[in-house]
Automatic annotation (TrEMBL), chain A:
Database matches in PROSITE patterns: ABC_TM1
Keyword terms of this UniProt record: Cell membrane, Membrane, Transmembrane, Transmembrane helix, Transport
Organism: Roseivivax lentus
Entries under NCBIfam families matching the protein: 3a0107s02c
Organism phylogeny: Bacteria, Pseudomonadati, Pseudomonadota, Alphaproteobacteria, Rhodobacterales
Keyword Signal recorded: no
InterPro entries registered for this protein in UniProt: DUF3333, MetI-like, MetI-like_sf, Phosphate_PstA
GO molecular function: phosphate transmembrane transporter activity
Annotated localization: Cell inner membrane; Cell membrane
Chain positions covered by the region annotation Disordered: 1-26
Comp. bias intervals (Polar residues): 10-21
Name assigned to this protein: Phosphate transport system permease protein PstA
TrEMBL record, chain B:
Gene source species: Roseivivax lentus
UniProt protein name: Phosphate transport system permease protein
Domain ABC transmembrane type-1: 257-475
Pfam family, one: BPD_transp_1
Highest taxon of source: Bacteria
Subcellular location: Cell inner membrane; Cell membrane
Described purpose of this protein according to its UniProt entry: Part of the binding-protein-dependent transport system for phosphate; probably responsible for the translocation of the substrate across the membrane.
Main location: membrane
Similarity field: Belongs to the binding-protein-dependent transport system permease family. CysTW subfamily.
CDD domains assigned to the protein according to its UniProt record, in alphabetical order: TM_PBP2
GO process terms (BP): phosphate ion transport
Amino acid sequence: MTDLSAGAASGQTPRSLTQTDARTKKRNAAEKRFRAYGMAAIAAGMFFLVVLLGSIVTNGVTAFQQTFLQVPVYLDPEKLDKTGNRDPEEMKKVSTFGYKPLVEDAVFAAVQAAGIETAFEDAGDMDALFSASAAAQLRDRVLANPDLVGETVTFKILASSRVDGYLKDRVTRDSVARDKNIDAAHLDLVDGMRDASLVTKSFNWDFITGSDASESRPEQAGMGVAMLGSFYMMLVVLGLALPIGVAASIYLEEFAPKNRFTDLIEVNISNLAAVPSIVFGILGLAVFIQFVELPQSAPIVGGLVLTLMTLPTIIIATRASLQSVPPSIRDAALGVGASKMQSVFHHVLPLAMPGILTGTIIGLAQALGETAPLLLIGMVGYIATNYPDNIASGFFDPNSAMPAQIYEWAKRADPAYYERAWGGIIILLVFLFAMNAIAIILRRRFERRW
Amino acid sequence: MPAFWIVLIVLGIAVAGFVLGRSRALNAVIGDRRDLHSLPNYYGWNAALKGVVPALGLLAIWLILQPMLIERAVTGLVSEQAIAEERDLGLVLADVRRVAAGLDAAVAQGLLSGDAARDLSTASDDIRATLATAGVALGSDVQPAVLAAAQRFRVLSGQAGLVMVALVLAISAGGTLYGLREVRPDFRARNVVEQGIRAILIGAACIAILTTVGIVLSLVFNTIEFFRLYPAADFFFSTTWSPSFGGGSELGILPLLWGTLYISLIALLVAVPIGLFAAVYLSEYATKRVRSVAKPAIEILAGIPTIVYGLFALLTVGPLLMKVFGDDGLGWMQAGTAVMTAGLVMGIMLIPFVSSLSDDIINAVPQALRDGSYGLGATQSETIRQVILPAALPGIVGAILLAASRAIGETMIVVLGAGAAARMELNPFEAMTTVTAKIVSQLTGDADFASPEALVAFALGMTLFVITLGLNVLALYIVRKYREQYE
């Protein structure tokens, strides 16, 4: 530290105290610097947060918009229903290949009718404009409503991912030069169609409710099935982790004698909280899939693994919540003749419930975003195209989960899938945000200060 | 789903037991409940618990053990064939299971009668075609031994299933009846029930131990299996990692450890200064308003799932670094995935981890120390550097060690952001890989689980487990040993 005597001893003339000497200036400058470091650190943290959220939103929000070609399609009875009795069973014989020419012709006719100049002279060249699944979607529409056959109906035909990307500025003329799926002439055509409002963008419900699609059809891929997979996993986690976690906490907090066995449990719980999540994946693979032989990729296995991962979180939150209930409550219950068990279950537990629920929701939110263990139990690489048929198949049939689906998309080669991955992250974060908000509201609303 | 129905029936029996037990208790004292030792509900609970707990326990154990025991029983039928074809026994057993499942499906769909399924022979019937119509596709034609084993498998599982249903229901009913017989006015039902609940609570608490045991066993057994196929010395000391599923792999852990430690080091170089200064500022300088905004904002970073950081590394940070350090810029970087990419993003992830732990620790330093320092004329920053940080040092070191253990065990960021090449180099702009990333890549392929290339993942997992556990224990030890005791 500083002292005036040191200055005096070295023979300097003592100056007025109101005037800052060089050393004090230096110290004050150091103080300012230190403070600036702190502020810079906070600013850096905030900056990273903003950049992270910003890049999620800017990259992902376009996934919620999808390009459609709005053209009238003539549903030719000659091709779709030769017998003419509009029997859906018979019409099923016409495969999607039968519908594809209709779409091609319709797009071509619309282009001609709108008077857009194009070098293409063949309806088959329109292929690159719409999705490979457009014909299948048209077929589903027709089979659901056979009376449409013979009429000219305006359909919203799913545009191909290149066209979609072009309208979203992802695909440029430079990138198209190396692309064998589409060429610059198509993009000129799209410009013309946009001016004639044959191409429109609208909100992409299919991205939220739809299923995953194969590698070549990013425009069709959606999160819906993966969301269901996550939902079933969360049901397992909630159904197992909450009761087990609460029971374990009650024992440790209220009943356990102080002995080596209790210590062992405590050490185990605190260690499990710090075990890397991938190790839980190895556990799931070795125990639940190899040893117990549960099906791979099934939400039940994912749920079990995530349960084990979430338990420490729930136990720690529940114990904190039980601890915060004052001993006078227990004493009063015991005093009027309740047994120890009754005092806990009738009085302490209900009072601790808001805290327990808050901890559980936060644990669930953690589990919802966890990816690494799901990779090992095979929830990645599985293309989730089918909704589960019923509740049992929801648990036991292979499915994906939201974070696993995002990872799967991020790994695919087509950049159109990156947009989907960012969009998936937005959906995931909306869920996490909602869960945390519920937890905070619960805590604010019910937390008691004793 | 027979197990589901059994559970429902058992629960039904328990409900009946509860109602009967309660009414029996009330009848025993002719409605005057003062003569009962416990509240009437406890007599009901006694009967219900005795009906449910042993029965469901047996059901769970049975469901786990049955496939293993039956498999052992049919192994004898196919082991010769497996040796003859030089195939792994596990694969043949998988065939057996698939054929058995196919037969079950065929019977369920009415393609085969139960007797026909039992009497099928490979000579006279085209089983593959039959099963294909039932929706079970087989890779090759069914061998006679496999079919015999599958039929035996079906018979045994059918019998075992029947025995299980009978036994579980009998135990459930028996337990309930026993509980009902116990009902007498002087029967201490509450004590018995509370003992039972206590046992359930202890059982729940033991799940933590079971999980640890499960982790250790699944790692240890497979690691031993791995070292039987691959020399341990090569694993620990070889500097080459080049798995090839055709055989002749070199599986040295050193390049992976190097990548892991390098990435973790960069992550800590980012996270520790920022996290620490943020904690100091928040706890010592910030006004209440700033604190109430900045602290939750930084903690949002902790709530974001790691897959998001992974994608951020792959698609945002990687390309950004490429612009500066790539061929168009300084020319140090070949691809967006690199040690620096993963390290930076992991550092961002760890900032809230370091800052909130340090914040707690700094707040725990008593105000008297600060006041004493100010009283001697120290400025605020001198107080922090010379009084508060030394006092909080053990806790901060503990926090940094915990963050390091987090960094070493982190998977998604390195899988997406660090690249796949296992190498030991100093340039942080090169792609390297880590232990966790290789665990994922070795276990998500189509590799046979018995090959060293897949089993090595367990040895890697074991190493990871030991390292992170060691760091955690060390962190706890430092905190406990060097903690300043105030008061």
